[in-house]
TrEMBL record:
Naturally occurring in which organism (per UniProt): Horornis vulcanius
Residues annotated as domain Glycosyl hydrolase family 31 C-terminal: 26-113
GO molecular function terms attached to this record: alpha-1,4-glucosidase activity
Assigned keywords, A-Z: Glycoprotein, Glycosidase, Hydrolase
Family, similarity comment: Belongs to the glycosyl hydrolase 31 family.
Protein name per UniProt: LYAG glucosidase
Keyword Lipid biosynthesis set for record: no
Origin: domain of life: Eukaryota
Length: 240
């Protein structure tokens, strides 16, 4: 349970941004699969899985005493939240391992999720560096956003006491663009960038034009650590 709760804490920046979009545009936070895939008749009667926003597929275990779960994976490429390994689905039911310490989460291609190193409380978590998870589409593109305020005050959006950052990937270039900034966000840094679905090992990675150490795994996950970029500082990262 502790592992699952810490995972949820790590996802708070993503969840908080979903609530902002719900407040601003009326989007749903948790939604059934048919909301995103209305033409896929297989999703119409699914009631044992759900999405956070359009990007995160949750397949919970709802039966006692089992160590696996069968879930539907809509057509497209999905990435394991923990490892970044890809699942290329034609729209099919898949059996997934589900030990007690593991919750099955998959990220939809073309998405960028802001996460954060979890602490034992939400207050402690807020002070930790952010980790951005990039799930590349088949066209090597992705998009995401982040809404950030002090986490306590009311009407921060209406009063302008917030920061809003947009993340985008195209042509092997990740960009962070600050559309609105507040002083609260100066306390937060972006520490790590994990890019899922990088087809070839890069020869080098450039952060604002300067070479940066990186790691690349066989499951096509590129990781760049120790970025140390302020949340309200726009930047670009390119892999060649």
């Amino acid at each position: 349970m502790k592992d699952v709760l810490l995972t949820r804490y790590s996802l708070l920046p993503f969840l908080y941004t979903l609530f902002h979009r719900a407040h601003l545009q009326g989007d749903t936070v948790a939604r059934p699969l048919f909301f995103e895939f209305p033409r896929d008749v297989a999703t119409w009667e699914l009631d044992r899985q759900f999405l956070w926003g359009r990007s995160l597929l949750v397949t919970p275990v709802l039966e006692p005493g089992v160590d696996s779960v069968t879930g539907y994976v809509p057509q497209g490429t999905w990435y394991d939240f923990y490892t970044g390994s890809s699942v290329n689905s034609s729209g099919e039911m898949l059996k997934m391992s589900a030990p007690l310490e593991h919750l099955n989460l998959h990220i939809r291609e073309g998405s960028i999720l802001p996460t954060q190193k979890p602490g034992t409380t939400t207050e402690l978590t807020r002070g930790n560096p952010l980790r951005l998870i990039v799930a590349l589409s088949s066209h090597a593109t992705a998009w995401g956003d982040l809404f950030w305020d002090d986490g306590e005050s009311l009407d921060t959006f209406e009063k302008g006491n917030y920061s809003y950052v947009v993340f985008n990937v195209t042509q092997n270039i990740f960009t962070s663009t600050v559309l609105h900034a507040s002083s609260e966000a100066t306390k937060v840094t972006i520490g790590m960038l994990s890019i899922f679905g990088v087809q070839k090992p890069p020869s080098k990675v450039l952060l604002n034009g300067q070479e940066k150490p990186f790691s690349y795994l066989d499951n096509q996950v590129l990781t760049v650590s120790d970025l140390g970029m302020s949340l309200i500082q726009g930047f670009s990262l390119q892999w060649l």
